[in-house]
Specification:
Layout: H1 4-25, E1 40-44, H2 49-60, E2 64-65, H3 68-71, E3 79-83, H4 85-93, E4 98-102, E5 109-113
Parallel strand pairs: 2-5
Antiparallel strand pairs: 1-3, 4-5
């Protein structure tokens, strides 16, 4: 049955969907975006990235989308002070494989995990430092090393 309460619920849902679609479709039309947000006070502890990103969203007022698998095993940095959301999220994710990206069409912010960049293994017979002379730079003198005696153990 249709009741007055049901009508109000549908009206609220419709209003929320309209607001959401306007924010996604035209993020600069009065909705908070990370690019034009003013400085805010942040107090984010160094903790699991999933928790830190949720706290960042609450404190910045900007929604960030991510899959829990993306943040698994990643610890975010502590961030404290008056910063823009861009500065805060950059500090939060610095030194981690996580990066914040923005979809140009929708304006949606999401977190992605970068593939780790592996350094090539060192060459097996690579260059080595040249041996240096341990003699004194004074003519006619020799440098000596006083080392403790070495004992061999069975």
């Amino acid at each position: 049955m249709w009741s007055e309460t049901t009508g109000v619920v549908f009206w609220i849902r419709g209003a929320l969907l309209l607001t959401l679609s306007l924010c996604v479709g035209a993020p600069r039309a009065g909705c908070a975006t990370i690019a034009d947000a003013p400085k805010r006070q942040f107090d984010l502890p160094a903790t699991a990235a999933e928790q830190s990103l949720k706290l960042f969203s609450i404190q910045s007022g900007i929604q960030v989308v991510f899959a829990p698998e993306v943040t698994d095993g990643v610890r975010a940095n502590a961030v404290k002070g008056a910063l823009t959301p861009t500065e805060a999220v950059e500090r939060l994710l610095a030194g981690t494989p996580l990066r914040l990206t923005r979809d140009e069409k929708t304006g949606v912010l999401s977190v992605v995990r970068q593939k780790s960049i592996q350094k090539p293994p060192p060459e097996k017979n690579g260059q080595r430092a040249a041996l240096t002379s341990t003699s004194s730079d004074r003519p006619g003198t020799r440098a000596t090393l006083n080392l403790p005696p070495i004992q061999a153990t069975p």
